Amino acid sequence: MNRPDAPGSPNGGPRRSPTLEVVAELAGVSRATVSRVVNGSSKVSPEVHAAVTKAIGELGYVPNRAARTLVTRRTDTIALIVHEPMDTVFDDPFFPHVLRGVNAALSSTDMQLVLIHARGDQQRERALRYVCNGHVDGALLISMHGDDPMPETIRAAGIAIVAMGRPPSGPRADYVDADNAGGGREAVRHLIATGRRCLATVAGPLDMSAGVDRLRGYVQATGTAGMRAAANRVAYGDFTEAAGYHGIKQLLDKTPKIDGVFVASDLMGMGALRALRELRRRVPDDVAIIGFDDVPLARYADPPLTTIRQPVERLGQEMVRLLMHRQSDPDGELQTVILPTELVVRSSA
Question: CATH 3.30.70.100: does it fit domain 180-310?
């Protein structure tokens, strides 16, 4: 068999991209067989698969993604939908680490990732139009607030989804989360073990499961220790540095004798440390501080921040794993993955 003209060869005239027909001729198979190999079909013998793969390599054939999408109804694209202002996404180290985990899990696949901002009604509607109109094969949803209807809307459009965080009204989608309540309990136990007797907390937002569960862990642990009054020493924030700054001032203004505070995120912990410096309260001598997340900045705080570590990158990796499973088993039972947290002791507590 004569080898068909390759792109740019002297006999081939003007340079052109090889087609399925050219690959099929070189491999000695039909065009349909080449298409099955390109689209990952298992209905091809190993020998034929090897011949087609070799021909593709020799010719430098690149599948036409648009044409492939029309045939397979797949886009090889997933969406990462973030329900926070973009300033928060760029300022909070949590989000880049989630993204790093997602990218790591996708690195061995042909899937592409598109980041979608969905904070506010207009952006939510635009995000839903894009996702539900067939531009992606699946969606990862992070930082959802309240009883968000977005998961149900996307699922109704036949798009596989995985959420980060426990849905407040119960599982309506596969989701991945950290043991937030367990982390809150561990923080309180450490404060008590280091001699703190008047505890308080700067909690996260109550329209997010992470905020609710970390507060629940704090209340459970202080109750178990007989510190019933501690359940009333609560300020609420939005996981930002400013919220920690104002929250700790609010707590100390009401109860100056507070000597230990669990702050529900490291960024809020940074704000709490800044406020305590302004108030001339020594950390940890006067007030001990424990954060949550273990973002890289925590170790460089002044003093370095004791915190509850959650495996942020692994959260992103597990989301991708569940999404791939859901795509292969659309009607299977909903799955939940809860990852453990870990106390990291530094100088602030």
Answer: no
